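Researcher: Quick sanity check before group meeting.
Model: Go ahead. Protein one:
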Amino acid sequence: MTAHYGNDSIVSNKACKCQTWEWNALKICGLGYVGIGVREPAALMGFATDILGLMPARSVPGDPASTSHLAADGSIYLKVDAWQWRIGVHPAPRDGMLLYMGFELAGEIELEQACAELAAQGVPIRSGSAQEAAARAVTGIAFTQDPAGNVIELFYAPRLDRDFVSPQGMKFLTGDMGLGHVNLIVSQLKASQDFYVRVLGFRLTDYYLFGDGLSANFYHCNPRHHTIGLAHAGPYDGVHHLMLEVADIDDVGKCMERVEAAGIQISSTLGRHSNDNIISFYMHSPFGLDVEIGCGAIRVDENWTPRLCAPGDIWGHKGLTAESMAPADDVAAG
C-alpha cells in the first residue's frame, strides 16, 4: 500500500466527542492525526514504543488485509488511543518533515460546508477520493495548505479499532481535545494567523512577545489550551514540536527517565509553562523534531478571551528559547 501525502482532562480510549462552538465556522473538533517524514521509518519503531509508549497500529490504513503497522512503502502507523492510528511516519528525503496535519470535522455536511467556505475565500481546496480517505482510515477527506506550505487535511468519521495498550503503561489525554498540539515556526506570521483564525476558525488563546518582532502565539479549537502554535522566530518555516499530553506527573517522569537512559537529548528541561500551566519536558526526538511530553494543562471554554502573557516559565524549561527554534543551518549562519 502506498501512503498518500497530500504535503475536566480525561483519559480517553474512546471516540472523539466533537464539541463544536458557534464561532468555529468549520466546526473543527481537533487535531486528528499527523504525518511525519523521516529517512528510515521502521528504525524508529523502538523509540515510539519503548520511549514514548505508543502502540503499533494493528493494521495499515486502507489495506484491510494487513495485520501489521508496517506498510509496503515502509511507512509505520502508531496508536495513542482507540483510533486505528494517530501518527504516521513515512519515508522522506530527510528527518523531521511535517508531511500533513489532519483536522477532524463533525460530519459530512460540515466537510462540504468547509470546502465551500474555503473556495469562497479563494483558498485552494480539493475534495479527496474514496481511496485517499481510506488511506487515512477516515470516511471523507479534503486537502488544502496553510501559507507556510503545511498540508492540511480536513476529514470526518475516523475508523476506531478500540483497545489501546501502551507498552509503557502511558495514558494519553485525547477525547474531546484531539491528539495534542503542533507548534509551527512561520516566517509570515500575519498570513498564517489569518489562515488559522479567519479561514479555519481557530481562536487565539494567548501569546508571548520576545522583542524584535518575535512572538509565540497559541490557538484553540476545543477545550485544549492550544492545538496550533505559531512561532515567529526569524525568516524560516518549519515545525518545532509535537506535544502529547499524559495523565499524570508519573507518566511524564517515567518517560523522561527512559529518554535519559537511552541517551536522547533533552532540549528543554522539566518545567511548567506560565500560559497553559502544563508540566513538561522536550526531547530532540529521532523523528527529527522535538516532542513535548506533559501533564496538567488547563482547559479553555467558549467564554475564553485572549491574553498577553509575560515571557518565561513559572519554573524550569531551560533551553527553550527563540534561538532554539531556528534550524541548525540558520543558527550556524549567525
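Researcher: Fine. The other one?
Model: Protein two, sequence then structure:
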Amino acid sequence: MKDVSYERREVKRARYAVAAVFTVHGAVTGSFATRVPWIQDHASLGAGQLGFALAFGALGASCAMPLAGRISHRLGSRTALRGLIALWTLSLILPSLAPDLYTLCLAIFLYGASSGMADVAMNALGVEVERLLGKSVMSGLHGMWSTGALIGSAAGTLAAHLGADARLHFTLAAATLTVLGVVAAGWVLDVQPADDEEPPPRFALPPRSALLIGAMGFCAVFAEGASLDWSAVFLRNRMDTSAALAAATTTGFMLTMAMARISGDAVVNRFGAVRTVRAGGVLAAFGGLLIVLAGYPALAMAGFALMGLGIAVVVPLCFAAAGHAGPNPSQAIAGVATITYTSGLIAPSLIGGVAQATSLVVSFCVVTALACGLAVFAGVLRTAERGGRTEVSRPAAAVPGPRP
C-alpha cells in the first residue's frame, strides 16, 4: 500500500461512504432472508434440500473471497469496491429465478461468491478508515450493515404480507441498491498498492494470529446465519404462523443487532472487548434457550431478538482485533473474514441438515451451544484488545493532510 496522507475531512467523508456501502450490503442480505420461505416453496424443496442449496453459498464465498485482495491490488480499492458491490446487489435476483434444486444451487453459489468478495473489500477499507481516524469505528460500520439488513427485511416483510412475487421484489430491490452502492463506493478512499508491492496470493491459509480470533467470529456468525435464514422458517413451520409474522421475526432479530452495533463502540470503550463479548454470549445463550423451549410465537420471537443483541458486536471486534494482530494486518483481516463469512454461509445448510434428521429445535440447540462458547472463550480477544487500544490511542495529528 502506498504511503499516502489524507486530510481529516477526507477520511471522515470516506467513513460515511463506507458506512453507506455497509448499509447497501446488509440490505441485500435482509431482502433475501425474509423471502427464503418463498424461494423454498417456489423450488418445491424440503428442509434438507433447502439446507443443501444454501451450502453452495459457502462454497462460492470460499472460492471467491481470496480473489478480493488481488482485484483491489490490480484496480485500486475504489474501483474494485464499485464493481464488487454492483455484482453483489445484482446477484440478489438469481435465487428467485431458480425453479428447482439444481438451478438454485448455482444461483446461491454466485450469490455467495459476490457477497464474499464485496464483504472483504469493504471491511478492509473500514479497518483502514479506523486506523487513519485513530478511534474505533468498526462496530458502528457493522451497525450500518445491520441497519441495511433491517431495512431490507422490513421491505421483505411488507412484500410477504402483500403476497408479492419475490422475482419482482428482488428485481426492484437490486436495481435501487445497485445505484446506491455504486454512488457510495465512489467516495471511499482510493488505496493503491506500492510500486514494488507483490500482489496477494490467489489463496493463502489464514495466519496463526487470525485463527483464534476467527474461531470467535465463527461462533457468532454461525448463530447469525442460522437466525437470518431459519428464523422465519422456524416460526412458520413449527408454530404455524402467517408468512408476515414469520418475516417479522427476522426483522426483530436484525433490529436488535442494529441497535447493539450502533451503540457498540461506546460500550466497548467503557467495558472492554472481553467483558462485552462475555455478556453478549450470556444474552445470546438465554435467547437460544427461549427459542428451543418456546411454546408460543412471542417467546420464540423474543429469543431471536436476544440472540441478535448478544452476538451483535462480536464480528466487528474480531475484524478490529485482526487489524491490530500480527505483522500483516491485511492477511489477518482476510483470514478472519474467510473463517467468519464461511461460517455464516455454512450455518444455514447445517441447520437444514440437522432439522431434516431430527428437528429445528435440535438445530437451535447447536446454535445455543455455540453462543455459550462466546461467553467461555471471550478471553482470546484480550491480547488483541490491548493492541487495539494502543492503535486507537494515536493522536489525530499523526494523519496529516496532503501537502500542495
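Researcher: One line on it for the slide.
Model: The radius of gyration is 20 Å.
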